[in-house]
Specification:
The protein has 2 helices and no strands. It is mainly α. The protein has one domain. Helix 1 crosses helix 2.
Length: about 50
């Protein structure tokens, strides 16, 4: 099965932008106390694929 959105640079940028917009909502109630590693944009993108 082929990936629906493709792998070109434009699509990667679109997904990164989408993840950055959604990030505050995803993490709104998460306590990032001492010693907790926050996920980056790449990990967040995987959640929405």
């Amino acid at each position: 099965m082929e990936y629906l959105h493709g792998f070109d640079k434009k699509e990667q940028q679109r997904l990164i932008h989408q993840a950055q917009i959604l990030e505050p909502f995803v993490y709104a109630d998460v306590d990032f106390g001492k010693g907790v590693k926050r996920l980056g944009t790449a990990e967040l993108e995987c959640v929405f694929l």
